[in-house]
Write a structure and sequence with these properties.
The chain contains 3 helices and 5 strands. By secondary structure, the protein is of the alpha+beta class.
Length: 92
């Protein structure tokens, strides 16, 4: 199973033991997110809405490519991939 890294926004680090990046093994982006939330359950309500979907203010990327939050299980991962959760900015 590929070893990947998942980067966290600063606001989430307190809920992941202060870690900026979490390394984990996962075959898909969806599996990586699920493993992250299993390791750090306090992140669950900050990343997923009540339907279990990614909050709309979050962007999930793999190697800087934005992923479709409805198709995370379709994105296969390779050794060394960098996933990132990014808090989207809004306003005007």
């Amino acid at each position: 199973m590929p070893l990947v890294a998942l980067g966290l926004p600063e606001a989430f680090r307190a809920y992941a033991g202060g870690r900026k990046r979490v390394e984990l093994e996962a075959r898909t982006a969806g599996e990586a997110l699920a493993r992250l939330l299993d390791l750090h359950p306090d992140l669950r309500k900050r990343t997923l809405n009540t339907d279990g979907a990614l909050h709309p203010y979050l962007i999930f990327t793999c190697n800087r490519e934005q992923l479709d939050p409805r198709a995370l299980d379709a994105r296969t991962l390779r050794e060394g991939d960098l996933l990132e959760l990014i808090a989207a900015a809004s306003g005007g």
